[in-house]
Amino acid sequence: MAEEVLSQNEIDALLSALTTGDMDAEELKKEEKEKKVRVYDFKRALRFSKDQIRSIGRIHENFARLLTTLFSSQLRTYVNITVASVDQIPYEEFIRSIPKVTVLNLYNVEPLDGKIIMEVNPNIAYGMLDRLLGGKGDSVNKIDNLTEIETILITQLFDKATISLKEAWSSLIETEPLLEDLEINPQFLQLVSPNETVVVVSLNTAIGEVSGMINICIPHIVLEPIISKLSVQYWMQNETKKPDPAAVDKLSKNLKNVSVDAKAILGETTISMQQLLNLKSKDVFALNQSIDQPLILKINDEPKFHVQPGKFKNKLSVQVLEEIKGGVEE
C-alpha cells in the first residue's frame, strides 16, 4: 500500500502539536504500529491512474488554448480559458454538481463509443449570446427561456468547437467530433449509468467582464479503447520516435536546391569621411590583404573557405584551398 504524503501545512501542525504537548510522541508511535485500514468506496471506483489523468489534462490544456483563439475571433473580445482541474467521479455526482438549468452540448466522437458533454455555465453562455447579438457581453441569467434564434446561435458557436476538439485529440486518435444535441436540463440527459466513472475537465473561462466554468464530461466508455495511449511511456515514445526516412530524404533534396550567396573578399581597408569626399580618379588605397596570402570566401557573410584567385574559361574564379573551422556547419 502506498504511503500517505503529508502536506507542509500538516507537517507544521504536527510539529506544533508535539511542541505544545497536545500530542504525545509515544501515542503517535503506537498508532503507527496499529494496522491501518483505508476506506474504499466502490461507487467511486478510480478507473484511471494519476498518469492517465495528467495526460488527459495535457490534452485539454491544448484544447483550452484552441478554444481561446476560436472564441476570441468569433466574439471579438477578451477571452481566457485555462484548465482548472481534472477529476474522475461518478456520473451522478457530475450531474448534481452543475446548475439545474444550464447549457449542455452533446458531442459524438466517432470512432469512439459513447458521447461527451460540454457543460457551459449560464453566465458564460449568455455573455456569448450578448456578444453575438451586438451587445457588450453582459450576462442575463434567463437560460430557461432560450428562444429559437438564441438556440441556433449557441449551437453554431459550439459546433465550430469540434475543429478544436479534433485537433486537441489528434495526438491520441483521429476523431470526427459532431455536435448532436443541445440541452438545458441535466435531468433529461442520461448519458451513462449513475455509478459510471467519468472524467470531468473543468475550464476557468473569462469572456470580457464575465467569468464562469466550462466542464467537459468524458465517460469511461469513451476513453476505454485509448487508455493505453494515456500512459507516460506512450507519450515518451511519440516524442522520441525516429524521423520518417522519406521525409528526411525529401528535406535534404530541397535543402540542396537552396541558393546561398558566395563572395570572395579581395581585401578591406578603413578610410575617413574626408578621404572619401576627396577621392579622385587613379587614387590608390592599400588593402589589408597580402598578395601571397589566400583570400577568404564567405557564404552568406560567414567565412567558410580559404581560396586563391585565378581565371577559368576567361572568367575570374577562385580555387578552394581549405575549410575555415568554426564557420557555418554543414
From TrEMBL:
CDD domains assigned: FliM (cd17908)
Cellular location(s): Bacterial flagellum basal body; Cell membrane
Domain Flagellar motor switch protein FliN-like C-terminal: 254-324
Membrane topology classification: Peripheral membrane protein
Signal peptide residue numbers: none
Keyword Membrane: yes
Chief location bin: other
UniProt keywords, alphabetically: Bacterial flagellum, Cell membrane, Cell projection, Chemotaxis, Cilium, Flagellar rotation, Flagellum, Membrane
InterPro entries in the cross-refs: CheC-like_sf, Flag_FliM, FliN-like_C, SpoA-like_sf
Family to which the UniProt record says this protein belongs: Belongs to the FliM family.
Protein name from the UniProt record: Flagellar motor switch protein FliM
Protein's organism: Ornithinibacillus xuwenensis
Lineage: Bacteria, Bacillati, Bacillota, Bacilli, Bacillales
